[in-house]
Amino acid sequence: MSEFFQSNTQIIEKRWPAVAARLLSEDPSSLQADLVEGLGSTLSVNGIQLTSRHDRMREAQVQAASLAADSPVLHVYGAGLGDLQHELLLRPALAQLHVHILNGAVFSLVLQLLDQTPWLGDSRVQLHYAGDREEICLPFFALPSELVLADDYNAKIRDRLISETHLTFNNREFDPHAAHIVERLHASQTLMHVDADVAELFGTCAGMPVFVIATGPSLEMHFQRLRTIREQQPRPLFICVDTAYRPLLEQGIRPDIVVTIDQRIAERHLPPAGTSAIRLVYMPMVDPSVLSAWQGPRYVAYSPSPIYQALRQQFPRGELHGGGSVIHPAVDLAVKMGAGEITLFGADFAFPGDKTHAGWSDGELGPQLGAAKHWVLDGHGQRIKTQLNFRSYLCELERFIAGHPQVRFYNSSRAGAIIAGTAFHPELAL
């Protein structure tokens, strides 16, 4: 035990005994740690520099400047080398600084190598494991290096931090004044005059079980069972997302409702033949030529997106949850129709079996397996490949589920990402 480690952990044991007990069980020996030098120096862990190697304190000042100077409570995710904590604690307005550990082994290593007692001993500081909380706290700064190094226990909070950090960037495509958006919404108005309001479906399936079917690779494991259930009476309502429609159809499974929201959806995703008995719920960004070819009843919905603000005043229609993916309004539709329980199929948010989607070739729907540089934990607790936007979609679905405790949510597959707030279906989960 190093002298630094002893003095650092004495403070932690006194102030946060539960955190100290967990830190003492961490194994920093599994990490590859190196001193990296430039104009200054820093610690590199598994090839990731914890801070700048040129000017750590200047970097911390820049990071601190992103947080309001008069905020009495601040949150830092990742302890780093203690530089940001030191900088923030210089603020006279700061009453509480919450430091959330993103990798216990990394923090334990830092405690062995460097004196962290000045900030650990400050009465304004509170120390936590990030994964002990279900949601992120605002306002925050998340150290970029530790977002990369986050361990399995803290991974869900890492995903929420990254999603929140990227929110403004991701929303740049949805400028209500963008020419292509204005043009598409104008073209949709002809259909909106004649199509039904999605609100007409709300409350029509009170207490019923509903299957919400997405296009993740694990869907392929359920085709036979879904075919069998589809022929039973009574049976759950089948709601599928647009890209799942064709794969289901090819397997002889006809959904009751299809949900589509994306301007890139084409007839190859939603072939119109034989759709007279299938309801289509859509948002006005979908190509009007695809919508008009649909033979069955059509229902208009909005998301909370600002792009629909002007249109909803002219054509009042029901609203469905928006979280970046079509899975969100599909699940919200099931809830608003009155579902007592919802079972998710193909909601993988990852690439189990080294596939991107069920029924589509690699890259046909956008993401390619080779571009998957990130991970989530699957239902077996193992890391599985994914991409950043899938992790954001997962975060938003988990938040939605947490906000609807009156509905039981089941997951049908352990192969994809584990979904907080769901249980594995006792009969259908594989």
General description of the model:
The chain has 430 residues and is of the alpha/beta class. The protein has helices at 3-15, 17-24, 56-65, 83-88, 104-113, 117-120, 144-149, 155-165, 167-170, 179-194, 223-230, 242-250, 288-293, 309-314, 327-336, 388-402, and strands spanning 33-37, 41-45, 48-49, 73-77, 96-101, 125-129, 140-142, 196-197, 209-213, 237-241, 257-260, 279-282, 298-300, 341-345, 374-377, 383-386, 408-411, 423-424. The protein is built from 16 helices and 18 strands. The strands form 4 sheets. The chain has a 9-stranded parallel β-sheet. Helix 1 (3-15) packs across helix 5 and helix 8 packs across helix 16. The radius of gyration is 25 Å and the shape is elongated.
Give the structure's gist in a few sentences:
The chain has 430 residues and is of the alpha/beta class. The protein has 16 helices and 18 strands. The strands form four sheets. Strands 8-13-12-11-10-9-14-17-18 form a nine-stranded parallel sheet.
How do the strands and helices of this protein lay out in sequence?
Blueprint: H1 3-15, H2 17-24, E1 33-37, E2 41-45, E3 48-49, H3 56-65, E4 73-77, H4 83-88, E5 96-101, H5 104-113, H6 117-120, E6 125-129, E7 140-142, H7 144-149, H8 155-165, H9 167-170, H10 179-194, E8 196-197, E9 209-213, H11 223-230, E10 237-241, H12 242-250, E11 257-260, E12 279-282, H13 288-293, E13 298-300, H14 309-314, H15 327-336, E14 341-345, E15 374-377, E16 383-386, H16 388-402, E17 408-411, E18 423-424
Helix pairs in contact: 1-2, 1-5, 8-16
Oligomer: single chain
Shape: elongated
Q: Estimate percent helicity.
A: 25-40%
Q: What is the CATH fold-level name of the largest domain?
A: sialyltransferase cstii, chain A
Largest sheet: 9 strands, parallel
Spatial extent as radius of gyration: 25 Å
CATH architecture annotation name of the largest domain: Alpha-Beta Complex
Number of strands: 18
Instruction: Give the strand content.
Output: 15-25%
Q: If you average the pLDDT, what whole number results?
A: 95
At the first level of CATH, what is the class of the largest domain? Alpha Beta
